[in-house]
Amino acid sequence: MTTIVGQSLPRIDALGKVTGETLYSGDLVMPGMLHMKILFAGRPHARILSLDTSAAEAHPGVAVVLTAKDVPVNEYGLQINDQPVLCGPGSAKPGTDIVRFVGDQVAVVVAETEVIAARALKLIKVEYADLPVLTDPEAALQPGAFSIHPEIGASNICVHDKIRKGDVEAGFAQAEVIVEGEYHVPAQEHAYLQPEAGVAYLDDDDLLTVKVAGQWTHADQKQIAHALDLPLDRIRVQYPAIGGAFGGREDMSVQIVLALAALKLRRPVKIIWSRKESLIGHGKRHPMVIRAKWGATKDGKLTAAETTFIADGGAYMYTTNKVLGNSTITQTGPYFIPNVKSDVYGVYTNNLPGAAFRGFGAPQAQFMAEMQMDKLAEKLGLDPVEFRLRNALREGDTLDVQTPAPGPVTAVQVIEAAARRAGWKNDTGQWSLDRKRQAADNAQPAFLVRGLGLAAGFKNVGFSFGYKENCWARVEIHGKAEIERVVVYIASAEVGQGNHTILAQMAAEATGAPFEKVEMIVMDTLKMGNAGSASASRLTFMSGNAVKGAAQQARDKWESEERPAIVEYTYLAPETTPFDKETGKCMPNFAYAYVAQAVEVEVDTETGQVRILKVISADDVGKAINPTQVEGQIEGGVVQAQGYVMMENFITKAGYVLTDQLSTYLIPTILDIPGEVESVVVEIPDERGPWGAKGLGELPYLPLAPAIMSAIHAATGVWFDEFPLTPERVLRGLGKL
């Protein structure tokens, strides 16, 4: 039998996407369809005193104008219900008449055409009483700062995680070298290709159906049902093709208001956000200020780490509690530190909410960790690879949460793999390399300097902190004398990562059927169990195990002459435990994956321009189910991380977004990406993963920022503790401005 797992088979969605046959949510058209536009607050903090919608309602072609008073239960949220569906007077819940950031939604207009809806939107009269604005999370922490959510409590602290491992003071007393640093990491816009869009309607069975782009069908269904005060079985959420997500579609955008309008009007309703609406309307990567003090002995062993994180949670919780939980876990990098003290704060402000974004709190934390490692190595006179390997996590080593990382622990393997490919040598029992690089052309002008850097990282696979990780799938084997088709039902979201292709490979492998005979029925709440979110690098592991389990049992039934053979199966991951509130002690995750990257840069010391010449990314994926897709994920993650570090400059002032177009918020084009990305696929199987596979999606993002900074330091001797590395910031760091 041909082995299908491990082959670079074509993506099952490729042809439809490249030919335009595949429909995204913005492409959907239905008979009798109406069009929606949303009135955003456009101000960071204010009380709505009155709303006059009469002129908009009277405008020809307008079907309805909806405000807060029309929402049955005017609240929602993925973690806690702290956000109004529509802000304004008329709701029973206190505080829903207040807008807390510029992207709060105030009213919706539904009309015969999008043009009419846009015209009528301008006729709505809103009387605001502006309130004080808090945009600095450190100021929001201070005693006496007003509460952004007085209905929740007097404090603006929405998250406070603590780590108390060992004796930090004793650890610093043992240290012979101590490095302190302060790091500033910025917000980042997801910039997915497809803006928020969707259609809602009542089907022939009176089922309220919402077709949108998202990351977790069943979570969307639950939030819609809650806000509309309807039972879950009255709501169907279905995802057409999804044009990117990266965490930005975990939280609600248009789903609830679409469903509300379709329910009231009993006609299909459609919306497509403009790019500007998308930029102000959904959350961003959490900006953070991180202060760190780390110590080590002269022989290069870490003894203690003390850190404080202050993260801008923005106006609402979204996933700030979970993101910062990840920052807390990963803040010591893939290294063993016996003594750790940390306080991690998430703070409400009047900025855009902090949201899930690829890496989910780990890129920020590990930027700090890797910078501290590089600075300690320099102070100790040790090669940065050698220093990392002396401290890299090994089997049985405890994380900052005082429990061992579940195996296999592969930090050493990925660091060595990346280092070797980059040219590091270990001929004398120690790793070493002159990281100041010679220009390829000896005639290269003196103001162009090159350097090589390396950084490592690790990331959990799956949900954490006691959540009972689970994933449902159904597999059907049809045919009489031989297998004619295998049908896989699973709600997992295909956001561009290739999940449905590898699930088809797994189903074929487990049933013994040809790959071409596998049919995928996906991304729907109707007659499907919960598959969980396309996040936390979890779907290869979780949905893979669910499909594998269902397929193997279906094959057993088939061989016992039960035909068609139909099996529903729910995979339950190993248990995890939540933080101890005072010490942070827990077993937070059931699996981790590890990564290391080496980066070569060229710095123009006259203009401040930095070019990424080459990135070597060594990622432990456990088992590459589809190697070409693995390489695609690595390359995509590197480019997205490069944009974060080098050029994506999300600027706000007093709560207002100044970079609200892609002409002012710049993302990498083909002319900006690294000259070369070399993928080093490390395969050390995790016996609990399907065919040994682990999650990959977030790994290649994690270490790029510190690896770039390490390379720039090798080239120039200057440390950069914040980014993006705009030419002005680079020149200022070089003392040229």
Secondary structure blueprint with pairings:
Layout: H1 14-19, E1 34-40, E2 46-52, H2 54-58, E3 62-66, E4 98-99, E5 105-111, H3 114-121, E6 125-130, H4 137-141, E7 157-165, H5 168-174, E8 177-185, E9 197-202, E10 208-212, H6 217-228, E11 235-238, H7 255-265, E12 269-272, H8 275-281, E13 288-296, E14 302-314, H9 320-330, E15 339-348, H10 362-380, H11 384-391, H12 411-422, E16 436-437, E17 448-460, E18 470-478, E19 485-490, H13 499-511, E20 518-522, H14 539-559, E21 565-572, E22 592-604, E23 610-620, H15 627-646, E24 652-653, E25 656-657, E26 676-682, H16 704-716, H17 727-733
Structural descriptors:
Aldehyde Oxidoreductase, domain 4, 5-stranded mixed β-sheet, 737 residues
Task: Describe the fold and architecture.
The mean pLDDT is 97. Helix content is 25%, strand content 25%. The strands form six sheets. The protein has a seven-stranded mixed sheet with strand order 3-5-1-12-9-10-11. It has a five-stranded mixed sheet with strand order 7-15-14-13-8, sandwiched between helices. β9 and β10 (208-212) form a beta hairpin. The protein contains 17 helices and 26 strands. With 737 residues, it is of the alpha+beta class. The protein folds into three domains: 25-131 and 193-244 and 249-281, Alpha-Beta Complex (Aldehyde Oxidoreductase, domain 3); 288-463 and 581-733, Aldehyde Oxidoreductase, domain 4; 470-572, Aldehyde oxidase/xanthine dehydrogenase, molybdopterin binding domain (Aldehyde Oxidoreductase, domain 4), CATH 3.30.365.10.
